Amino acid sequence: MVSRQLVGAVRRACPLLLLAAVLPIALVLLTGSSGARQYTATSSVYVNANTSQDPRELNKSAVYVHRQMGSFAALASTPTVLDPVIDKLGLATSARQLAGRVGVAFEQDGFMISLSATSSSAQGAQRLADAVSTSLATVVEEVSPPRTDGTSSVRARSMGSAVDEILSSRPWTTAITAGALGLLAAITFTLFRFARNDKIGSLDEITEITSAPLVAEPRLRGRHAATTDHEMERLSVTVRGKHHSAGGRVILMADTSAGRRAVDTASWVADQLVASGRTCLVVCAVRTVASTSTQIKPAGNHHMVMTTSEGVSHLVDEHRATHDVVLVARAHGVHSAVRSVAFDGATIVLTVRATTVGTLIGVIKALEAEHIPILGIVAWTARRPSLRSPLSARFHPISRSPRTATR
C-alpha cells in the first residue's frame, strides 16, 4: 500500500523531477567550459643557505632555511612575485587572477619548492612556469637577511620546467553531474514531502480507515449543476430509509473537506428527499454568521439556513417535526453537534489529497462515540468546485464493495 502511494507521489512529482534534472544541464551547457585542451608546466626552485664551509654556521643556516620553506612557498601567490611576471609576459590579468593558474607545494623535509602553471598552449604554460620560478627565486633572496658582505644569506635557483598536456572537464561531464545532483535533490524533496504528508492520497486509503461504504466520487463538470437523478443512488436510498419516528429525518453531513463541497452534497441529498415527497431544510453550522443569513431562504427545491454551533440544537428541534433536516458541520463542529442533536445517520464528505487522515479518524470516532451510523463516504477530487452554483459537480457512484477497517 505504501509503495503504491509512493509511486503515485513520484508520478505526480514528475514535472518537478524533470525540471530539476534539465535546468542544471541547460545552465552548465550555456555557461560552462568549452572542453578545450589545457597545458600544465611544472617548475621548481631550489633554496639553500649561502654561507661558508664552517660546519656550525652551515648547520645554523640550514635550520633557518628549512624553517622558512613554508613562508618562501607562500610568496609564489603574492603580488610581489606575480606582478613582475605579468609585466614580463605582458599578461592582461591581475595578480589575484593569475594566482588561480599557479600551484605551489614544498617538501617538508627538503629544500625544493615545486610550482605549476596552466595555459591554453604548451609554450604559454612553460613561459609562465619559468617566469614564476625566476621571480620567486629573486624575491626569496631579497627578503632573506643579508650577510656581512651584503649578499643574501639564502640562495635560490630556478631548476627549469617541463610541460604536460591535459584535458579540461568536458561540458557534458559537468552538465550530467549537475543534472544528477539536481534530480537527487528533487527526489529527496519529494520523499521528504511524502513522509510528512498526512493527507488521504487515494480511495483505497479510505477503505483501510473505515468500513463505511464509498457511495460517490464527485467529479467537476464545469460550473453547471448536475440534475441526473440516478446518481448517488446508494446514498439517496440509504438516507430515505432512515426515518425518525418523532418526525422527519435528521442527517449529519460531516465536512472534512474545504469550500462548498459538503454544502453541494447536502443540496443534492435535499433535492432527492424533496423529489420523494418530503420537505427538506439544509442547516449550515458555522463559527459566526450575519443576522441576515439566519433567515430560512429557498435554495432550489429545498430551503437553506445558516446558524452558529450554539444554535444548531434549537433550530433542528424547531423544524424536525415538519421537515427532513440535513445539517452541514465542519470537522471541528462535529463533536458539539453530535452531543446536542439526535441524528438518524451521518455522511462524511472528504476531499482526496486535501483531507488529512487524522481529521477523518477524528470525525469517525466522534460519530462512533454517540452511536451514530455512518451512511456513506462521499470522496471529492482535489479540484476546487465552482462557488456560483449550489451543486457544481456530477456525482459518479462507486461500485466497489466496502472493505473492513484495518486500523
Question: How would you summarize what this structure contains?
Answer:
The protein is of the alpha/beta class and 407 residues long.
Task: Give the arrangement of secondary structure elements.
Layout: H1 2-12, H2 14-31, E1 37-49, H3 55-74, H4 79-89, H5 95-99, E2 102-106, E3 112-119, H6 122-143, E4 154-167, H7 171-196, H8 203-209, E5 214-216, E6 219-220, H9 233-241, E7 250-255, H10 261-275, E8 280-286, E9 297-299, E10 302-308, H11 312-319, E11 324-330, H12 331-340, E12 345-351, H13 357-369, E13 374-380, E14 393-394
Parallel strand pairs: 5-13, 7-11, 7-12, 8-10, 8-11, 12-13
Antiparallel strand pairs: 1-3, 1-4, 2-3, 6-14, 9-10
Feature tags:
407 residues; alpha/beta; Alpha-Beta Plaits; Rossmann fold; 8-stranded mixed beta sheet; 4-stranded antiparallel beta sheet; 13 helices; 14 strands; 22% strand
What does this structure look like?
It is built from 13 helices and 14 strands. The strands form three sheets. Strands 5-13-12-7-11-8-10-9 form an eight-stranded mixed sheet, with helices on both faces. Strands 2-3-1-4 form a four-stranded antiparallel sheet. A two-stranded antiparallel ribbon has the order 6-14. The two termini are 14 Å apart. Strand 2 and strand 3 form a beta hairpin. With 407 residues, the protein is an alpha/beta fold. The C terminus is likely disordered. It folds into three domains: 58 residues; 131 residues, Alpha-Beta Plaits; 192 residues, Rossmann fold, CATH 3.40.50.300. Helix 4 packs across helix 6.
